[in-house]
Each structure stands twice: as structure tokens, then as C-alpha cells.
Amino acid sequence: MEKLSYDAVIIGAGLAGLMAAHEISKAGYSAAVISKVFPTRSHSAAAEGGIAAYVNGNSDPNDSPDYMAYDTIKGGDYLVDQDAAELLAYKSGEIVELLEKWGALFNRQPDGRIALRYFGGQTYPRTRFVGDKTGMALLHTLYERTSGSGKVDFYFEWFAWELIRDESRVRGVVAFDMRNMVPFFFKAKAVVIAAGGMGMLYRHTTNSYIGTGDGYAMALRARVALKDPEFVQFHPTALYPSDILISEAARGEGAVLKNAKGERFMTRYAPKKLDLAPRDIVSRAIITEIKEGRGFPGGYVGLDISHLGEEYIKERLALAYEAAKTFSGVDATKELIPIRPAHHYYMGGIDVDITGKNPDVIGLFAAGEAACVSVHGANRLGSNSLLETLVFGRETGNEVVKFLQSFTEPSSDIDKEAEKAEQSAYDIVKKESGVHFGDILEKLRDYMWEFVGIYRDENGLKNAVSEILKLREQMKNMYVLDKSKVYNTEFYNALELKNMIDLGLVIASTALNRKESRGAHYRTDYPKRDDQNWLKHTIAYLSGNTVEITYKPVKMTKWKPEERVY
Amino acid sequence: MSLKNEEAEVIIKVKRYTQEKGFYWQEYKLKVDRFTQFTEALRRIKSEQDPTLAYRASCHMAVCGSCGMKINGEPKLACKTLVLDVIKKYGSNVITIEPMDYFKPVKDLVVDLDDFYNRMHKVKPRLYPSNEVLEGKAEHRLKPEDQKVLWKFAQCIWCGLCVSACPAVQEDPEFLGPAAHAKGFRFLADPRDTITEERLKILIDSAWRCTYCYMCYNVCPRDIEPVTAIKKTRAFSRLAKDKTEVIKTGEKHTEAVHSSIFDSGKIMGSRVYLSTYGLLGSMKEMIFLMQSGKLKYALVKEKAVENIQEVRKLLRG
Q: How far is A9 from chain B (nearest CA, A)?
């Protein structure tokens, strides 16, 4: 197998990966970024509404980083590690200012300073934005910055498949060049997994097609734990029926949710915060309206932005306007936008501390949606994810630098492991006949949506676990029709499916275990939050068909759990 | 409110490619509804009918730029195009999908974009702020109206459609192409940037090589108007040092057009030609025109418009 050698290999070229790569290369270490797609195609580009930040001298005069941390902790239903939330809040201003220096075109106030707006769960408005294409704007800025230094090697349209580790530490990554299917062993002293989320596990998702949970599954196979895997966020306002995200910014700017009877139904569910309640609450409210017969035929409700005025809409909510028009044929300046909840974000992820370091394997780090720091707890607040990618991407990059400074070369040979990993990829599809990835994939997406979705219960979850195990068995008969070595996307789709099934099993199993409702994890059979028994992080390992579950305490600093009302 | 739904059976003919077989067509039949995007149609073909089909797609909401291809001959983002709209527009349930033009084919709808990325990187696509700002001794302020102008041109998603559709790119290796110019202008015009002179060196000569055919304007899925960026870049021409022949000719041409309109209210073709290319160059051209029997057009005598004062007022702005 061909070999390359780097100080650090970063898997994923979204905001978190690029930020980590930037920091590592700036310190003089060699860094390779491996991505399935060209960096600007990463899912970070799809983030819309904004990035939360307390900026000194440019925030609401009553606001403070402490309020921001508190909002984040309460929004996350107290499963948030409070030291992480504080770090996020206290570094938010400087990260936004950094991106501004690098040329990000934030919307401005009349005096030229960066503008701000409200997002769900915020006590004071603190979301900074570039129209409603904030993710795209920041991703381009950061890619353009990182690619300009010439110090980071980009391997885009490469498929990272397996982590290589020895007894105690990470040794590299096996990846395929998608153009010709040649496997490479990227030897590395440190590996950062920043491979993003997993939306394709769900029938309805706002995520990109590339979000197939590769990073999580890669970690699981390397005997690394996922933290809080049962916490899956559903976004209340995905466009019906294409599931394209209609940014929460719409509600931040004053949009109102209405049912088929024309009622502003959020008065029933969150009388104080109304349409700006956190996402889990609004998602459940919408599903309840639809289930109880107050939705529109087909199963959706309406989002009204028409009163904001055409000019304002086209400037601040351009994408929402365009998406409604292009994909649902609705003129949002005059009509309701048809919306329903869809999968949106994964709060769970590779277990790391606030420096991005994983406790299971020395030299392994994770950042962004792939990681669970945990800063979102049981439910993420809108515009905290872009912030997380950059703040913790940078923290992780700095920690990798520290790690490299004290690095000692291991003596054991690891090449055999890499060859085994290459073989394991081919093993998945070595059959000459059987099933295709599509046959299994579509079932998985339905089971996840049906049984491991917005509302969960014991029977459904048990059903999900057993069905996923069946799919995992079926996968042994998977084969690839395309025998070509050139850009063989069928082969990679099959590997992605393997990743999705492993992750799906862990999500369903841990959700079955958590017998309470907290944030986005809502059990109809246990509708109350239970701090006595469940104020703790789930830690899950995958071993064969068994999901090994343990728990660890949530880090508390100054906020005691209280009832979460909005 | 209830959304109108319609369904249709569609035959999608995909122009496929492998290194071994070259190009060949393959047909797929599927049912679509009013909301089916081409990316979704392709996804369904791949997972339900033919897993061997290769294409790129990521965000399915027209912000990542992965899925550029030709749909019934039109350069489009597959995600931003609804199948039913195309059926209606062409009055046929048979639709062709082909890879983008100009770029080398890799497999099926996947093309090699290295040439495109090289063009983008040539224009130094990043802000070079002042040291004071980088060191935290000063802060940027940007007027909302400047932000608006820059943001228009900053929204390029690197999809490559404009380059694939640009005839000048194919003819002139020195022309950077529409997307790179949009990106280049976005930084050239940014008041926070400090390397204007270097940017002019990269951009001005190339800007005068655009033929103003407006293909980029027509195909851009984000309405960036690269051609407008090129026009605005040309306005920086007078600041350029060490002017190339292309720049000099371009400036002369603009000057000639301006003075022709100032004097007569019209573009007097032969006069503009003469001022732009000089007597010798124009005479060579005359011989060519004579040979092709088109000299009579060059010799048409045009009269100045009436109310020339009004035209001059407009020109002065």
C-alpha cells in the first residue's frame, strides 16, 4: 500500500477541520486534510442563519458571556458540560472578529459594525450573520485563507475509511483516492476527526447527501466511545416536501408559525418565547398540531414571513425566499411557507474534552459536529453550531500542536494493520451477487425516522434495534455492480452504508436505555426529565453486535439544573 | 393552503462515460412529482435502479455547487432544477442529462475540475488585511452598502457552470474566465484589502479578454453576474501599471466608443475601429472584409443623432 506521512491528518474539510488545520500548520507542523468533497462543498456551507457571539462593545448592553453560557446550558436541558459552554461563550467574540479580519462579509449596522439578530433560546440577540448564507460565507473565507498559505495539503475527493491504532495510540488513517480507488496509508502522529454529521440516516433531513456519519463509525470501529449518541436534533422548519432548511433566522426576524386554522399555535406550547422557543419544543409542537388534525393536507404547517416586507425578506432571508419559490412554488412575500420538522443536527459524537482530546486513544482528536464536547447537551441552540466548529476547531488545533511538541516516536510497526483495514473495505462488498446498498439504505432511513425520531418509546426503539441488526446481517450479502476503478461511487456508498448502520445501532440502543425525556430525546413512555437518575452522559462503545453503555457525570460549574420553561 | 401536486412519468437519458467505453447513452424511467429535484431523481436512480451511475451532489439547496451538469442542453445545478418544470418547458417527458462542457470527463456526470480550481486560485482569493488589523491595533468597519455590493460577487459557489459555458475560455488561454473574475473583483473592490496593485496585475489584462457574450450571466445559478464583475474590473484599468497590448487596445476601444457616442450619439463602427486598431491594423482588416464581401457594411455613412446635447448630458452623468 502507498504511504504518506504527516504530523497531523484531519478528516473533513468543513469549518472545524479547516480551522484545526490552519492552527496546526501555522505552528509549523505538516497537516493533511482528507475530504470526500472539495472543501467548499462541505456541509458547513449549508448553515444559514448565523453564528452566535458576544462581542465586546458590540452586543446588547444587558448581555454578557455568562448569559450566553446560561442560555446554552438551559437550551441543552442541563446535559451541557458547563465548562465547555463557558469557553464557547467567552471565546465567541474573538472568533467572529477573527473571521471578520479574514474578510467574512458579515451584515453590518449603519455605523459599519457587525449586525446582530435574535435566535431561538437567546435571552438577548447575539447572532451574527451573512444574509441567510452564513455557513457558506464563513466556509469560503476559511477555505480561501487556508488554501492560500500553501502549508496544508488537501486531499479532496478522498474517502477516509479506517483509523489505524495500536494498543494505546492513533497511528494514522487509511483512505482511498476516489478517482482511481488507490488506497493510501496516511501515517500520522495525531488525527483530528472533523467529518461532520449523519443526516442521511433519516428519511427526512436538512443535511447534505454526504452526511453519512463516517467519522462516528470510524471511531466506533477503532474502539473509541461516542458520547450522548441518543441525542438527535430535529429542526422545526424544513421546507415541505424537499426538507430544505428554512433558517431559524426567519423566526428570529419575526416569522410566525400557523396551523391550518390560522392559529398561532406556539401560544399553547411556549407562551413566553412563542415561535422563538428552542428547536426540540417547536418541533414537537408542530408534530402535535399535525397529529391532532390541525396541519395542512399532506402533513405540514405554515411559516408566515409575509409581513416582513419584500425588500427586507430578499435581503435578510434571501435563501428562504428562493427555496420556497424554487422548491415548493410558494411566494413567501405573500403566502405561508409550507414546513415540517426534519432531522437537522447530531448532538452526540466522538467523546472529547474541551481541548478536543479523546480519552480512549492517545493522539486522537475530534471537532465540530463529529465531536461531542459537550456544548449542546440534549438540544443545540440555533447559531451555536457554526460557533462550535470554529471555537473548538481552533482549541483542538492548538491542543494538537501541544501534543506534537512533546511527541515521542513509537517503535512498533503498524503497516500490517493498514493492510487489514484496506482488506476490510473490500470485504464488505466481496460478493458477486446479493443486495445493493440502496435496498438496505432506504429501510434504515425509514426505521430511524419512524422509531428513533422526534417521539420515541420502548416498543419502537426495541423494534428499531432488532430491525437494524437484521439489516446489518443482510449487509453481509452486499455487492457492488460497478467493477471500475475510476470514481466508483457505488463502492463508497456501500462503505457509507456500513458506517450508517453501525451508528444507527448505537443511536437506537442508547435511546432505548435512556428512560426519561430530555431535550431532543423525547420518550412518550417517560415524558419527564429525571435528574435523579439521568443527569449523566451516555458513553457507548460498539463491540460486534453489542452496544456497551456506561455513563459519566455532567460537568457543572455555576448553574444548578432547573425546570426548563420558555 | 394546499400545495398543488402533479405527477409524471419521465424518461431520463443520461450521457454516460467510462475510460474504456467512451460516451454512451442510458435511459432510466421513473415517476416524479411536482417537487422532485434532479438531484433527488438521480439519487433514486442510483439507490433503486442503477448503483453504477456516478455523479456529484451534496447540499441539494444550491449553496455547495457540486451538481453542475447539462439538463436538456442547458448548464444547470441539478438540485435547483425541478424535473416537472423541464418537462413543461420542453413539452416532452424525455429529458437528457450530460456532463458539463469544456472540462475533461472522468466518469458519467463527473468531470475533472482541476482546471477550474487553478483559475480560482490564480486570483489570490482571500483578503489581505492591513497589519494593524491583523495585530488587533485597528478594526475593520464596512459600510452596509459596500457589504451589499461585495456580497453579490462573493456568492460564487465554485460550481464551474460559467466556465464550462464560456466561449472565450476555450479560445483564449490567457483569459481567467468568469468565476475567477467574480472572485477577483470581490477582493479588488473590498476597501479592507491592501494588495490592489498585485490584483490589478492579475486581473486587468484578462478582463479585457472577455467578449461580453453574457453566457456566464445566463447560466450562473447564484445570479452573481460575472460579466458585471468584469465590467467593473475594467473600470480599474487606468490604475494599472505596465500596460499590456491587450489593456492598451481595450482602453483605446472604450475611449473610441465614448468619443464616437459623444460626437454623434452612435457607435460609428469604422471610426471606432480606426481609433482602436490604428490605420495599419484597420487596413489589414479592410482587405479581409473585402475578401469576404462585407466591406459595404464598413463603409455605411452614419448620420449623427438629433438632440446630441441630450446624449452628452447623459454621458456626463
A: 23
